[in-house]
Specification:
The structure is a single chain. The protein is mainly alpha-helical. The protein has one domain. The protein is about 90% helix and about 0% strand. The chain is built from four helices and no strands. Helix 1 crosses helix 4 and helix 3 crosses helix 4. It is globular and about 45 Å long. The chain starts with a helix and ends with a helix. The mean pLDDT is about 85.
Length: about 130
């Protein structure tokens, strides 16, 4: 159990280091504002910790419910929406920007992450299909 908690903490730290760079870029694009790396890191880290605890609480409370496809189709969008708003709330509170702009920053962050994922994984996908024939 202790190893799992330590692993979760280390993974959150690593993700926060990367997320801070993405947050800095998104804030610069949306707000035309330069923020310190430490502020960006702490914002992403704290939001990540809250999202982890929220996910654990939801997982533990739903552990007794029979998870069907219908239940998952309701739970996943609700959890993603809540995590989106938590991230935007932390950005708004810690960086002193309006919540509407923080939601836009969060949306830009998601877009940047999707672009990075596409750039990193598209060559792997293409190569796996090229060699499978």
């Amino acid at each position: 159990m202790e190893a799992a908690v330590i692993n979760l903490f280390i993974n959150t730290m690593i993700a926060s280091f990367i997320g801070a760079l993405i947050l800095k870029l998104a804030v610069k694009l949306v707000q035309k504002l330069r923020i310190a790396y430490w502020d960006a890191f702490m914002t992403v880290f704290l939001a990540g910790i809250v999202n982890i605890f929220m996910g654990l609480a939801a997982g533990l409370s739903l552990g007794r419910v029979v998870l069907s496809i219908t239940v998952l189709c309701v739970i996943i969008p609700v959890m993603l929406s809540a995590q989106f708003l938590i991230q935007a709330g932390f950005i708004s509170l810690r960086l002193n920007i309006p919540l509407s702009r923080a939601c836009l920053v969060t949306l830009i962050m998601v877009g940047i992450i999707l672009i990075i994922a596409a750039v990193l994984f598209a060559p792997l996908f293409i190569m796996s299909h090229a060699f499978s024939n």
